[in-house]
């Protein structure tokens, strides 16, 4: 018996008691799994997010709304960034005047984006238990490619508004019809010898600014 036959036989046995005319949406699926794995305060959830982001080698910074512009200016200055891709929905006050602001244009080529030093975006939601940022192409996030081509990505997360504890909680906030980009640390891969290479499928450096709201 081939592997294909083994798999098909298991499928047939699993479906033996299912009526042939039953559709998937007619069968209730139990969803009694845990939505979170602990009881946390908003501050503890934000702390867990910061910890897990750092475990993924993201650089985490914390500030408040009043200090956001100065924090972003300092990060761009430390990077030596002279040009920044900025989605339309990013407030002008976020960025300093001494950097070139590159629009998120539909006709921007990969070569043009690769020449830009940094990109600054917001996010749709951040997941504490997995250290994951999710972008959904909202006004402050822009097209997916602007966060994949430039080598340096700064992502601004509003705390606690945009922070959830778990993936199930995040999914409740997200529209599956939108282009979702899930980011867990800077882009990286490893070969069979486990030699890590960063910046393969996205930015080599990911910086996350957690903005504490009053």
From TrEMBL:
Residues 17-42 are annotated as: Disordered. InterPro entries: FTHF_cligase-like_sf (IPR024185), LUD_dom (IPR003741), NagB/RpiA_transferase-like (IPR037171). It comes from the Bacteria. Residues 103-211 form the LUD domain. Residues 17-35 have a biased composition (Basic and acidic residues). It holds the Pfam family LUD_dom. PANTHER family: LACTATE UTILIZATION PROTEIN C. This is LUD domain-containing protein. It comes from Streptomyces daliensis.
């Amino acid at each position: 018996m081939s592997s294909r036959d083994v798999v098909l036989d298991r499928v047939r046995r699993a479906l033996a008691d299912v009526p042939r005319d039953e559709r998937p949406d007619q069968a209730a699926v139990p969803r009694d799994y845990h939505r979170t794995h602990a009881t946390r305060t908003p501050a503890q959830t934000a702390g867990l997010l910061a910890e897990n982001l750092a475990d993924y080698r993201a650089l985490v910074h914390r500030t408040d709304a009043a200090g956001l512009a100065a924090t972003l200016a300092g990060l761009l200055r430390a990077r030596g960034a002279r040009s920044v891709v900025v989605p339309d929905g990013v407030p002008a006050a976020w960025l300093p005047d001494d950097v070139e602001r590159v629009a998120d244009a539909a006709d921007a080529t990969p070569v043009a984006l690769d020449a830009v030093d940094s990109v600054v975006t917001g996010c749709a939601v951040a997941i504490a238990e997995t250290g994951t940022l999710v972008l959904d192409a909202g006004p402050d996030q822009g097209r997916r490619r602007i966060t994949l081509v430039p080598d340096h990505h700064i992502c601004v997360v509003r705390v606690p508004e945009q922070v959830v504890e778990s993936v199930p909680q995040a999914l409740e906030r997200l529209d599956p019809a939108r282009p979702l980009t899930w980011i867990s640390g800077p882009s990286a891969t490893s070969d069979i010898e486990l030699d890590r290479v960063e910046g393969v499928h996205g930015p080599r450096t990911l910086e996350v600014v957690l903005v504490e709201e009053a």
